[in-house]
Specification:
By secondary structure, this protein is mainly β. The protein has 3 helices and 16 strands. The protein has helices spanning 62-71, 97-100, 131-134; strands at residues 3-6, 14-18, 22-27, 32-38, 53-57, 78-82, 87-91, 110-114, 117-118, 125-127, 156-157, 165-183, 195-200, 209-214, 223-241, 261-271. The protein is elongated.
């Protein structure tokens, strides 16, 4: 079912398109189309920590809750709405899997998150080393990390070192919901382990904030999603192997050397 509702919000037109799974908010003043998706996995219980929320608004309709999220001065990543209480809670962070299935305050709440964008596609990439500098005939290049291709002969590949890292410059401050790592699909997938992901307005590791970690080890072809809890704000996203290599039966891994190899890395979130 799809319903279009014309709201007397300004002297210009504002339309909300309602379906079972999402609301589209379309503002004729700014020519903006923002999608709010219903999360069917949300269990109807509300997280208690205050830092989740921009504010709580009583006596509000579903449509008005959507408008409030869109109009919020602080970036609103989504909202919780209770039809039983006609209450709206505006969120400053995306809810993670743990949040959506936790034991907090029970209720009939529904969670709708603002549809995230892919922030990383074709963005500038820097790394601790580049395999292509040592073996250019193989065809591994830094830009393959964010080229949108997840299974190709050429990959992103650092050289062998204890703590390899890669940084993606999103070119503007963003709110990061999650980072998806596509492990290499050819072989040697177990080399991916002990990855920490940090986000910041600086690309200096010590000045960044942890988004999440992946202990591993992985397997060839794995697709791994690391959710930031809470969502992180920043321009730079760095992935780094933070422990020496655990592999002992491969001479290339001697002295704890690692290599960071990906088919692709996808960063999802919102531009601020």
């Amino acid at each position: 079912m799809k319903i279009q509702v014309l709201l007397p919000y300004t002297t210009f037109w504002t339309v909300i398109v309602l379906t079972t799974d999402f609301w589209n908010y379309i503002d004729g003043v700014c020519n903006v189309n923002v999608r709010y998706e219903r999360d069917a996995a949300f269990d109807g219980v509300v997280p208690t920590p205050a830092w989740y929320y921009i504010n709580s608004i009583p006596n509000l309709s579903f449509a008005s809750c959507t408008l409030a999220c869109f109009q919020s001065v602080s970036v609103c990543s989504g909202y919780l709405f209770s039809s039983q209480h006609s209450s709206c809670k505006l969120l400053r962070t995306f809810l993670t899997h743990n949040d959506r299935n936790g034991s907090y305050i029970a209720g009939d709440w529904e969670y709708r998150s603002r549809a995230a964008e892919i922030l990383s596609l074709n963005k500038p990439v820097t790394a601790s080393s580049n395999y292509d500098d040592y073996n250019p005939y193989v065809g591994h290049k830094l830009i393959y990390l964010v080229d949108g291709i997840t299974n190709a002969p050429g990959k992103f590949h650092t050289y062998f070192e204890p703590y390899p890292w890669v940084t993606i410059d999103l070119e503007k401050i963003s709110i990061i919901r999650d980072v998806v790592m596509f492990n290499r699909a050819d072989d040697y997938g177990r080399w991916l382990h002990s990855v920490e992901i940090r986000v910041g307005n600086s690309s200096v590791w010590s000045e960044m904030t942890t988004c999440g970690t992946y202990p591993g080890p992985s397997e060839t072809g794995d697709i791994i999603t690391v959710e930031c809890r809470p969502s992180r704000y920043g321009r730079y996203v760095t992935l780094k192997i933070v422990h020496p290599n655990y592999i002992t039966d491969d001479p290339i891994a001697r002295n704890g050397n690692n290599a960071l190899v990906f088919e692709e890395v996808v960063i999802n979130g919102l531009y601020l």
